[in-house]
Amino acid sequence: MKIEDVMTRRVVAARADTELAHVARLMWDNDCGAVPVVDAEDKVVGILTDRDLCMGAHFSGKALREQRVSGCMASEVLTCRPGDEVLAVVGAMAKRRVRRIPVTDGTGRLVGLVAVGDLFAAQGRAKPKEQKALAAALLALMTAVTARAHKDEVVPAAPAPKAAKTVAPARKVEARPARPAARPKKRAKAGK
Length: 192
Description:
Layout: H1 20-30, E1 34-38, E2 44-49, H2 50-60, H3 86-96, E3 100-104, E4 110-115, H4 116-125, H5 128-146
Antiparallel strand pairs: 1-2, 3-4
Helix pairs in contact: 3-5, 4-5
């Protein structure tokens, strides 16, 4: 089975100078989690995922309309061609731990996109002898993209924030017994 048999041909794309707010709207309206970034000749120069968009916005502290795709996109992009074998592409995706890859023609122009969902749908349409191999490759892909980082790849945790100055504990005040009520003084009687 070839990539051209499973790829999505209707793909929304963005330019590097596009506002992130516009890309967020594209993702929402088209129910997609990644947008390839292309130049003026529609050649793939990057990719922007919904995670890239969210993390870029969060760490910059700026509104999406104030930021451009170029500030958040990944510029190293794994691509494939329409004539590539599906199993080979799934293997490459697992190795790079990616869920989607743009499909380009011989000149690097965007012609489609392959996502994990496309590959699972293709498994059901595959010939019986291809189904088993594709199922195993998809399991390896999902294991790779969802696996936790190896302990050597994990960045040490950020130091805990310094504790605020502690205030001395309140003094314990002991309850004093109530004073007995003063007895009223006897008044001298008038006329005595």
